[in-house]
């Protein structure tokens, strides 16, 4: 008897849950509908479309027939793609670590109650106001061996001066890195500075009372407290890295040779110049897969244990 | 589509109040370098003078790699222009097959174009199931070796008359601090292997590889000599000496800081704008001075099918432009400035410059199919990637190059 009443209660509970799913907060749900439709159709729908057509032999128009993994076999047999992937990995590792470290250091320096702080902040943030195209063009001139820094220094009599990374296949990726860091670090600094300012002043007082050196307070107390800001910074920097395209186009056009090619440029060139949608979509699916491999474990750690944590 | 319809209806509304009926026709093209822009202005001038319609110029930057995607996506996306230039070749193949391009067969029959086109093979890329969908307006050829008179004066040697003499002059040029071969970054290298193939390998090799896609020909002795020539070329080309655009190479040639360059004949438009006189400031060797046939490519005009409800005036303007582009007057005016060969045999080219005069007799030997003609854009892109990589990376041996070229040709369509 108790069993029956329990299951009855359970049933009515389920029914109530279903009813409430539609009626409770009805206005909020209506307001969210356009966003839900956008996500389903544009993000998820187009992603599925992309993945499907990467298994076809479509050329200029998406009309091809199913060819299995042919596009992927070709993709990984293409030296340009393989070079692109390695370039992205190198650029990504260096770019992510340097932007975070330099951004944090600059923010700490900025946090020392210095004079003209807002002026410095503006100067550091200014490069971020420039697009990657402008950044790329500026650095293209600076790093041009005959016209830029190297040429100027040599004309001034410093014959030993060499700075020709942009023209050297083995160094060009670091030339990209310089331009990328110049553009992006200021923004990281501002983010980190906001995080630092968000730490309660009482913490500082307490650590001072305990006689903890400032650098230890920053590293072991303040930094862990900035977890939210750090996650935001990593996600922003990471997404900027994966879609790296315009900087390369403006700075090196993938050269010298193919030594600074990146996956996004491969996708664009094969979809639009070569008119091979199948190949372009296979490449972009691989980019998606890379992002998923990074995002899913992180999302699992971040949100998976939510019930337990809070 | 909407924007075009609005423009057309606004134009129609304006026109209906005036006695003269005329339409605005948007024409897209990527003729943006100094010489090219001057040439396309000739088309616009003749069109406006003779028909009374207005040429709305839609110049797009970025050539085949930047502008072509814009043109294609506008047509696919349902926002077609009135007319557009594209390279003669297979880039628009699928657009024609999808029925997005206007059928020009009636105009072609009425004008009897097969009688005056210099080479029927030019019309092949425009033909689909026996109907004609585009009109080639000029013949361009990559097969030119440009040489700087100033550079050879400086080293006190006569200007070479063929590729072999040119290669032999490299050490002397390098001793004098002159770049043997000027090169711009990016796509300009992509045409060079084809030129070497036609010049050093000969007509049979071009036909075997480009037309028949014969893999054994790629692995053969003739192609090896082509690959070795490219190998020699990369030894005198270094990335820190490359210039941003092909027009800059023209300046290097005129100044004498670079001695030679392989580039298509459209370089000549820029040389002339910069004040160069053929035979005095620069020399030109069609077919590298070795072959008596040229590979032919060029530009064609396409007329997209306009959406329903378009003002008939605009469609009429399309028809008139199509007729006019291949008429003798426009052909002469355009090609003299552009530095390309006209597609008609029946016009007087005595006013053409010395370099064009050299090419006229070669046209009588028939055109060889260029990569643009016979290879899909996908295959061309792969070959371009390979060439760019090979020129820069000395670790790729000649054997690797041949093998990779062969595997691309093997899968070519």
From TrEMBL, chain A:
Keyword annotations of the record: Cell membrane, Membrane, Transmembrane, Transmembrane helix, Transport
Coiled coil (UniProt feature): none
Main location: membrane
PROSITE patterns: ABC_TM1
Membrane topology designation: Multi-pass membrane protein
Ranges of residues in domain ABC transmembrane type-1: 85-300
Transmembrane regions: 30-52, 88-110, 122-142, 171-196, 217-242, 281-301
Intracellular or extracellular location(s): Cell membrane
Gene Ontology CC annotation, any one: plasma membrane
GO biological process: transmembrane transport
Record carries keyword Cytoplasm: no
PANTHER family associated with the record: ABC TRANSPORTER PERMEASE PROTEIN (PTHR30193:SF42)
Family membership: Belongs to the binding-protein-dependent transport system permease family.
Protein name, as recorded: Carbohydrate ABC transporter membrane protein 1, CUT1 family (TC 3.A.1.1.-)
Automatic annotation (TrEMBL), chain B:
Keyword tRNA processing assigned: no
Cross-referenced Gene3D superfamilies: Periplasmic binding protein-like II
Signal sequence, start to end: 1-22
Alphabetical keyword list: Periplasm, Signal, Sugar transport, Transport
Location of this chain's protein in the cell: Periplasm
GO cellular component: periplasmic space
Pfam hit, one: SBP_bac_8
Family designation: Belongs to the bacterial solute-binding protein 1 family.
Job description of the protein: Part of a binding-protein-dependent transport system for a sugar.
Official protein name in the record: Probable sugar-binding periplasmic protein
Protein source organism: Pelagibacterium luteolum
